[in-house]
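This part of the workshop introduces the protein records we will be handling. A record pairs a protein's sequence with a compact description of its fold. As an example, a complete record with its sequence and its structure tokens follows.

_____
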Amino acid sequence: MILAGDIGGTKTNLALYDWTTDRTEPVHADSFHSADYKALEEIVEEFLSTLPPKTSPEGELIDEVGDEDESEAEVTEKPELPPEPITLTAACFGVAGPVIDNRCRTTNLPWVIDGSALAQRFEIPHVRLLNDLEATAHGLLLLRPDEVVVLNAGTPPKKKQALALIAAGTGLGECILCWDGTRYRPMPSEGGHTDFAPNSDSEIELLRHLRGSYLHVSYERIVSGPGLHAVYEYLRDTKKNEPTWLAEKIKAGDPAAEIAQAGLSGQTEIAKQALDLFASIYGAEAGNLALKALTLDGVYVAGGIAPKLLKKLQDGSFMRGFTNKGRYKRLMSQIPVKVVTNDKTALLGAASVAAQLASSIPS
């Protein structure tokens, strides 16, 4: 049995898999609010200590000592937990932050995660930490066609070169996948923290506005959940057109979610303008990433925000920002762009790496 995790600033997803070679569904999974815990170890301990008892297909508890022939004959579609206790052979966690020497100080949480310490505490032979976008990149390679939505079909080259992955959620992650002649190899990055480069007068004013709060304005300060709120606040403070009802909803709820809902439904102009600016800048940075690594094979847009704003990303504002590269506009229009709709892609990628680790451990 292997353990996989996707550790984000907002939530932590953990799952157990009985994975050998091919993609499979988890036998058990759960989600935790990251900020409610002081360390990842607390979440892992709670997850492993509250596993549900094994049940039969009819929902009855199975005695650990039973008829082996009978149990082998039973075939169920969903993988089941084995009789306790569970022995973990490997674990892999995608973590939002730079991973150096299998250790990470998380960007949006006050945690230090150490792979060796996790291995020792939970008696797991091998534990590997990956940057969360590196984990997502591994998962990207296992997605089915129905788990992506095409924004731009493009015309990729016949000879494989490279892919790009960009994902906005609590923060902004980026990753490059280089083709080594046999397969794509993910290369972790902290590109979301590079300097924001405005492309219009409005974006220049947005930069000035954000510099009143931050010494360094990165793309993550804009292309993220908190970033959408920041864009909205800039429009609110400069255009003075915020309706009272929306101000109250933002104050009482999740600001980014309320702004997105108001913008997508066309309820108010300021929310629509915020989404326009957000999507354009998101597309521009996706295009920057594609240019820097010449990822002609395609760009994938993942993370928690893209599926929720899919309608907005499909209206052309994202692709206009993506292709607006002067003399390279034609080249940019040839790059395929797809939105990942499977919100467990990072977990899937972490599981695939853990499975590889488990298969490499001598029995």
